[in-house]
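Thread title: Can someone regenerate the structure for this chain?

I was given the following input by a collaborator and told the matching structure tokens would be attached. They weren't. Posting the sequence so someone can regenerate them.
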Amino acid sequence: MGISLLPRGARRALKVGATVAGFILCLAVGGSPSSAAPSGILYPDLLTVVPGQLTTRTRDGVSTLLFTNVIVNLGAGPLQILGVHSATITVAYQQLLNASGQVAVQFPVSTFEFHPQHRHWHIDDVAEYILRAGALDGAVVAQFTKVTFCLIDTERVLPKDGAGPHTYLGCNAQFQGITNGWGDEYIRGLPGQQLPITGLPAGVYYLVSTADPGNNFVEANDDNNAAWVTIQLFYVNGLPRVTVLDHSPCEGVLCGDVK
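Best answer:
Regenerated them for you:
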């Protein structure tokens, strides 16, 4: 069976197939939409580790909250992204694999862009960071949306016999992803791992990190992509400091360094 190409408008049916009924609308090459779903698809499942290594930094009067973010794939299959180049843009296609490791279906989910500070290629709209005042539904005081990531396997998060092989190694615009049982870590010192906090009053805040905030990727569960920490912001000699008070419910690797 050849690779099925799924137009962007039909992805909603594929998401339903992944999470509810196993019913997929696919567009066969050269054909028309069909209810015959590729069999044996192994879906990824992206989750966010509780944000960790929180600290603050003040330079030239500008204060930021720094943190490390990790996205893990605990699904049955990999998140696999292929770059397709044209004269003006590189489109990111998600490829879903079957149990034989073959690509069963693919569809556009995002774009690649060259990240000059990291000096390699990133995929757009992979994560979102929000800082809220006082409660999980409190006022947004800082936000970084459409965070770009180079998606690679940086650390195995499941035992060797429960994880796929170390597959995604490079930050090129051709082939990226996260293998099932692996995670992709962005440490707090990297560009983009900060939120502005200059002038914020002392108090309690919630830092919320969400993988795939636009639900662009097809995965087994779209409802488990976020994690959060509660922090106390205070000042010492006029400089901001934070301490962690609480965090979202978690188990094992998803707790990060706040176990």
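Residues 38 and 104 are 6 Å apart (CA to CA).
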